[in-house]
Amino acid sequence: MKILIVLTSHDRLGDTGKPTGFWLEELAAPYYVFKEAGADLTLASPKGGQPPLDPKSHEPDAQSEDTRRFQQDPEAQRALANTVPLASVAPKDFDAVFYPGGHGPLWDLAEDRASIALIETMYANEQPLALVCHAPGVLRNTRGPDGQPLVKGKAVTGFANSEEDAVGLTKIVPFLVEDELRRCGGNYSKGADWQPHVVTDGWLVTGQNPASSAPAARALLEALGRRMPR
Fold it and tell me: Which residues pair with residue 206 across a beta bridge?
């Protein structure tokens, strides 16, 4: 069972000069869900190498057992420091793909041709995809095999407008995830702010926020189990 984890390479919040990147919990929690299921993991990013970490996800109130474990795990840290360039990835080499969020993906992965091609190819091949928090926004330019927006008519979730407003970045981000999923024809739903909410529609799994990271990873494994029955 081979799972690809795709991280952002973008490190700035628009024109603010403030740093951003991926959200630690959204990598760490799924990382261990997958590892404990026996998965062989590969980490990738548009630029390769060390992806930028959103410093806010490193603050004490954002820590969890998984984030602390990840930061003290030499193997995990080596994998993170040496992500492979996304353009070098072949979808056929993986059984599923997981996208952690953080604000960074809204700038790079949402427009990245390699990411768009990866998602479209894996979905067309019925290979499960999971995206959490801001990462569902990277679906905005993807198309399904029918040429329609990939999320059109599908049950989806992602970082809610109310959550973006709560962190004060509504006017900073290039687009709002909730609005964009709705614009593309997705049947968007959300749970309470900051509480786990995961939606599965066929081979597509989406999670609303950081708390949805581990549940989304487990949902991806369930989808993979349907495709690869034991």
Answer: 131, 199
Q: What are 208's two structure tokens?
A: 């609303």
Chain segment 137-192, per-residue pLDDT in tens: 999 999 999 999 999 999 999 999 999 999 999 999 999 999 999 999 999 999 99
Q: Tell me: the pLDDT tens digits for 26-48? A: 999 999 999 999 999 999 999 99
Using an 8 Å Cβ cutoff, are 174 and 106 in contact? yes
Which domains does the chain carry?
Answer: 2-227 (3.40.50.880)
Q: What is the enclosing helix (H) or strand (E) of 132? A: strand 129-132
Q: 71-76, long-range: CB within 8 Å, 24+ apart, which pairs?
A: 71/24, 71/28, 76/28, 76/31
DSSP string, 18-50: -B--B-HHHHHHHHHHHHHTT-EEEEEESS-BS
Q: What is the spatial distance between Cα 31 and Cα 174, in angstroms, rounded to a whole number?
A: 28
Measure the N-to-C terminal CA separation of the chain; round to a whole number of Å: 12
